[in-house]
Fold each of these.
Amino acid sequence: MAENEKPSLKTDFNATEKVLKILTAFLPFNEPKGTLELARTLGIHRASVSRILGILKEYDFVQQEEKTKLYRLGSTTAVLGKSVNRSFQTRFVSVVQPYMHQLSEEINESVSLVTLADNQVILPYRVKGPHPISVAFNLGDRGAINANSGAKAIMAFLSSDRLNEIKKFYPRLPSFTSSTLTNWEKLIEQFDEIRQSGFGYDLGEYNLDVFSVGAPILDYNNDPIGAITILVPSFRAEVINDRQVLSKLKSATVNISEALMNGSSSRNLKGKKPAFEAESSESQKKTSNVMSPQDRTEHKVVGLGD
C-alpha cells in the first residue's frame, strides 16, 4: 500500500469482522482457545489471528495463560459486560416502575421486581402495599433462588444450559423454614407446572410469615429477563390464589414485555407474545432457597409506620 493510500472501507470492514469473530468465538463459556484452533474454526489465516490476539491482549480484551499459552476473554470484556448490564437494569427498572405501582394500587398489596445477575437474585425495586400490615425489604437486597417466587418463575423459563450454570453455582440449597425445598430435582419438577400456569410460588419457604406469587417477564424469544412478585403476610395468603389478582399480575408482566420490546410503555407488542399469556391456572407450588442464611434478604411483615 502506498504511503498516502488510505485503507478501503472494505478492508476496514474485513478487519473489524475478524476481530468480532475472534471475540465471540469464546462465547458463551469463555473456554481457553489457541491461535491454531481459532484460525481453523473461523477460517482466518493463523498469522492474522495471532496479530489480532496480540492487539486484544494489549488492551485486556483477551488474556493468555502462562503455561498453556491459550487465550480467554479478559478483564476489559468483563467491564463492558457490566456496563451493559447496568445500563439495561437502569432502563429496565424505569420501564417496570409504573406497571408495578399500578398493580399495587389495583390489588392493595406489596409488589417487587426480581432479577438474576451473576446467578444472584436481586430485588432492585419494590412498591409497599397500603395495608397497615404489609411486607417490606431493602432495595438491592439479595433473595433466595430456591425460596423466591420470582426466582422460580425466572428459572422455569431458562435454557437447560443456563439452569445448569445456576445449579453449579449453588451445589447445595440451604433451608430457611420447614417448607423450604433443598433438593434440585424436586425444585425442577415444579418448573413444568410454572411453565404451564405462568406462576411461581413461595409458600412460607423463606419466611414463614410471608407468602408470594411471581410471574416472569419474557422477551420476544420467551427468555426470562425478570419477574414481578406479589408479597403478602401469611394471614392474607388467599390473595395469591385469587383469580383476579393472578390475572392482573399476568397482565402487568405481559404489558412490561410489550413496553420493553417496543421501547415505549404506550405501544402495543409487535411480534411473539409470552408463552403463558393464555389464561393461567391457580396451581400452587413449593420451593427452596439458594442463599446462605447470613446473606438472606429480610422480608419482614411491618406496620404502616415502619
Amino acid sequence: MSTSVSPRARGLLTSASARDDAPAAPAVEIVIPVHNEQQVLEANVRKLHRHLLREFTFTFQITIADNASADTTLEVAHGLARDLPGVTVLHLDRKGRGRALRAAWSRSEADVVAYMDVDLSTDLAALEDLLLPLLQARGDITIGSRLAPGARVTRGVRRELISRAYNLLLHLLLGVGFSDAQCGFKAARREVIAALLDDVEDESWFFDTELLYLAQRRRFAIREIPVRWIEDDDSRVDIIAAAREDLHGIMRLRRDGHKETGLPESSLLEQARLRRAARLMVSFRRRGVRDQAI
C-alpha cells in the first residue's frame, strides 16, 4: 500500500517497507477507552486505522480498552483485533475512563502513548501535530484544545458555556496554564506518563485534569494544539455524576496543594464561589446538555 506522508513527517519516520520488520514495541500506542460503544466502535476504529496507514509510516498500535461494557462492545473489539494488524484489546471488569487509560499506559512499551475518544469528535488531521513533536523528543505532553486560538468547534451554546466555566474554575482555583483539560485527544512521551501515573488518584472523568495538573506542577512541558471538533450527539455519560466528580476532584487537588505548601485552605468566600459554580454547572446539565467530555 502506498503512503501519503506530509513533508514534516517524511524523513523523520521509518519507511513503509520496514513496517513488517519493525520491533514488537510500536513507536506510538493510541488507546481508545470504551464503555458500551457497540454502535460506533467498528466504523471509527477502522477509520482511524486507515488514516494511520495512509498518512504516517511509524509503527503503531491501537488499543481498545473496554471497561466493563454490558453490550457487544468487547466482541466487536476482538473482531477488529483479528481483522486489523496493530489492533489489540484490553478488557477491564470495572468501569472508568481513567482506570482504562492507567491500565493501558502502564503496560505500554511505545515511545509515545496517546488516547482519543471513540466518537472521533476531534478531526484526525490534528494527529500529525499531536504526535510528531513527541516522536522528535520536542516537548513532554501534547493536548488538543477546543478553546485555543485557531480551534474550530461545533457544539451547542450550553455545552460551550459549561466547558468554559469548568476550565475557568481550573484557572482560578488550581492555577493551571492549559486551556482545555478534558478534550479527548492527548499524547505524551511514555516516560513522562510513567512518572505521573502513580500519583493520579482519579479513575474516571477527572483523570485527565489531575494528570495535567500534576504534570504542570512538576514542570513538564505541556503543548496545546487547536483542533477541529464536532459535538457527538450520542453520549453514554452520566452527566450529573461526571459534574460532581469533576468538582470534587478540583476541591481535592486544592486541599492537597495547600497541605503541600503549608498555606491555609481556601476562604469561606472561595468555598461559596465553588458551590455556586457547582450548582451552575449541574443546572446546565440538567437542562439537557449531553457531554462526552467537558
Amino acid sequence: MVAQLADIVRSGPVLSAKQRMIFLMAHEHVVALFDTEDAAHTAASNLGTAGFDDVSVVSANTVGDAATVKEPGFWKKLFGKTVEEYEAKVYAHNVAKGGAVVAVHAEPANVHKVAGLLAAHKAVDLKARAVDDAILSPKAAATVKEEVVAVPVAPVGERLDKDAVLKLAAESIDVGKKVVETGTTRLRRYVVETPVEKSINLHEEHAKVWKRAIDEPASLADVDWDDATIEVRETAEIPFESKSVRYVGEVGLQTYGEDHTATVHDTVRSEKVDVEEIKAKDIALPAGWTEN
C-alpha cells in the first residue's frame, strides 16, 4: 500500500481556513489527514462506495513500523520533495498519535469531488494543526499560501450509493371524532316537611241540672219511696287526623342531541429538494509542474 503512495506528487489544494482543512493534490491524487484510523477507514469506505476504488490508508498499523511514521522524512519521501516541512511534521506527529492519511486516485474531472467528500468527513486542516502543535507560529501560518480550494460536498452520514436517491415525505392530517364525557346531570328525590293547619268545628254535649216546682196531688200508693238515680252522658268531639297520599307530578331525565362544526388547526410537514450545481474550479498546479 505504501509503495502505491510513493508516486503521489503534491500540488497543494486546500479548503478555506473556515473549513479547517488542507489537501495535497497532484495530477490525479488527493491526500488528506484524519485524527483517527477509524475515521480514515470510514472515509475510505464511503469513497469506495461512491465509485472511487483506488483508495489507500497510511497509518502506523498499515506501515507496520511506528517509528517510521514519526519521521518527517518518511512523509517527504512518500509525497515528494514539494511537501512543506511543516506538513511533513504534522503528518509525522499526528499519525504517530493514532491518526491516518487517506490517499485517493481519481480522474482529473473527479478530483474536486473527492476533495469535497474528504472534507465532509472532517479531514484535518494541516496549517491550523501546525499552529496547534506548535510546529508553526500563527504569524508564520498566515504567510502560507492556500493554492486551490476544493469544492465542498454535503457530509456523508451513511454509505453512498452510486445512484443516490432522496425519498421525499409529506404529512397529511386525518380528523376523526370520539366521545368524551363533558358532565353529569343527576336527579335526587328527598322528603321535606312543611307545617300545615286546618280548622274543624267541634260539638260538645254537657249535662245541665234543672228543677221546677210542681203541685200535683198524689196518693201514698203511687209514690215510689225507693232510692232512684238518673244520669245523662256528656260528650265532646275532639279533632283527629289521618293522612292520604296522591301523586302530584313527575320529573324525569332524557338526553337530546345537537350538532355543530369544529375546525382543527395544525401544521403538516413535507420535504422539498433544492438543487445546487457547484462547478469545480480548475486545479492549479505549482509553478514548474504540468499535468500529465
